[in-house]
Amino acid sequence: MPELSRTQVVVYAAVAIALLLVGARAIRGEGGGEVPFASAESAPAEGSFSIGGQSGDLVVDVTGAVRDPGVYRMPAGSRVNDAVARAGGAAPRAQLEAINLAARLADGQQVVVPERLPGGAALAAAGVEGPISLGTASVEQLEEIEGIGPVTAEAIVAFRDEHGGLSSVEQLDQVSGIGPATMDSLRDRLQP
User: Fold this and answer.
1) What are phi and psi of 148, to 5 degrees?
2) Each residue of 119-148: pLDDT tens digit?
3) What is the C-alpha separation between 153 and 146, in angstroms, rounded?
4) What is the number of other CB atoms lying within 10 angstroms of the CB of residue 182?
5) In sequence order, what are the beta bridge partners of 104?
6) Does domain 129-192 have CATH number 3.30.160.70?
7) Among 120, 150, 146, which residue's Cα sits nearest to residue 132?
8) pTM of the model as a whole
9) What pLDDT, in 10s, does the model give residues 10-58?
10) Torsion sign, CA atoms 92, 97, 102, 103
11) What is the CATH number assigned to the segment(s) 36-126?
């Protein structure tokens, strides 16, 4: 085996040290990347498990008529009611009866708490169009969407409850009665 020159030994040693430093930094989690959510609520809970950088927690966006809207990390298995509470609770103008507080949360879901308009009407009932949340929509709300009848609405809610929520509109193609043509028409009307 040929002998290495002094320069080659120094280069190889420098590369080895650099790799060790990079590896140690990666193991400690100081890779220089930004933390995606800087709020205290989004820090992983003590005792939560992590596999390959993925924790058992869910990240949800709570918006609308809540006291402190934002993005929150919730324990797996949490319900919409838990997310509303984490966001400081419902604002006085909230119409909580318009959403399913008992629905399970899905990772990446947006929970929209509608506002009550003067006279007691909700924004959605007043003709303000917007996407309906699959994670919280009732059978009646789903039936209002063109292309979804009572049987399909029931099937969507049953699928959502069976799978612990829906993280994307694309998951609807697994529901009996929803084909590609229906999926195309639903994408603009629904959100996870």
Assistant:
1) -120, 115
2) 554 444 444 456 777 777 788 888 887 778
3) 11
4) 17
5) 79
6) no
7) 146
8) 0.43
9) 888 888 898 888 877 777 764 444 334 434 344 444 333 333 344 678 8
10) negative
11) 3.10.20
